[in-house]
Amino acid sequence: MLAKLSQLPNDVRQYMLVTFNYWNFTLTDGALRMLVVLHFHQLGYSPLEIASLFLFYEFFGVVTNLVGGWLGARLGLNRTMNIGLLMQVIALLMLAVPSANLTVIWVMFAQALSGIAKDLNKMSAKSAIKTLVPNEKQGALYKWIALLTGSKNALKGVGFFLGGALLALIGFQGAVISMACVLAVVFICSVLWLDKDLGKAKSKVKFSQIFSKSRSINILSAARMFLFGARDVWFVIALPLYLGQVFGWDHLLVGGFLALWVIGYGFVQSIAPRITGKTEGIVPDGRAAFGWAMILAVVTGIIAIALQFNWYPQLIIIIGLMIFGAVFAINSSLHSYLIVSYAKGDGVSLDVGFYYMANAMGRLIGTLLSGMVYQLYGLAMCLWIAFIFIMITTIISLWLPRRSTTTASI
What we know:
mainly alpha, about 80% helix
C-alpha cells in the first residue's frame, strides 16, 4: 500500500494526506459536539447552559482563523495542521476526567482548545488545496474543494452518530479516550509524511496582513457569517433538544437522524459542481451565490411558517430539514470554492483564514442565539431568525463579482 502511494504524483499524494487528516479530525469533532450536547443535557443542563459550553469553542475559532492564516503563511500549513491535531488530542483527554470534575469552566476551556484545533485544521486543509492546483484550472479547483468539503461534512454526520452511539455503549469518558488514541496515531502519520513547506509564503508575511484588503473577500466573508449563523441558530442546540423533548427521541435516534442529515448534506456538497453546471463548463460566480441564497431563504421561510402554525411538525422538521440541508450544502460549497478562487496564491492561508474567521463568528452568534432563543421562545423563533440571516446573506451576495466568461478548465 505504501509503495503504491509513493508512486503517485506528489500533489495527489499530499491531497490524500491532507484529506486523511481532515477526515479523521472531523469524525472526532462531530462526535465530540454530539457527546457534549447529549451528555450535559442528560446531567440536567438547560439549553442556554449547554450553549455556554460552546462559547469558548466558537470564540477562539474566530481568533484562530484570524491569526492562524498568518501562522500558516509564515510557518507552513503542515505545522498549523499538525498543531491542530495535537491540540484536539489534548482537549479530548481533558474531558476524560471523572464526571464530578467536569465543571462548566473546565469543559469550556477544553472546548476552547478544541475550537482552536478545529479551525487550524480546517484552514490548513482548505488552503493547502490552493497550493496543489494550478491557478488556470478553476474547474479542477472547484471539484477538489467540493470533494474535500463534502466528504468532511459527510464524515461529520458519521461523527454525530458515533458520538450518540459511543455515549450509549461506553459512556462519555470511554468515548473521548478512544477518540484521543485514534487521533494521536493520525498526528504521528501527519508529522512523518506531510510536506514540510506546504503553503509557506515565499515572501515575509507581516502580522498586519491578517485583515483582508480584497473587496471580494470582505463581501464573501460577510455573506458567509450570516449564512452559518442562520444554520447554527436552529441546528446546533435547539434542534437536538427539540427532537428529544418534543418528539421523545432517545440519544441514539437523535444522533442517528442528525448524522444522516449531515451525511446527506456532505454528499450534496461533493456533487455541487454538477448541480451548478460544471459539466456544461460553468464555473460559479456572485450571480450563482445570490440565486442559491435566495432559494435557501424561501425554503427556510416555508419551514418557519409551517412550524409557527404547528402544521404536522414532525413531518415538516424531517422533510424540511432535508431540503434545507441540500440547498444549504450548495450555498456552502459555492462559498468554499469562491474563497479559494479569490485568494492570493502566495500566502493563501491569510485570505482563507480571514474568511473562516467570519465563518466562525457566524457560528458563535448562531450557537449563542440557538440556546437562548430556544429556551425563551422555542424552535419556530429560531427559524425566523435563520430566515432573516439568510435574507441578509442574499442581499450581501448582490455585490459579489460576476465573471464575464463561464468556461471551466478541468
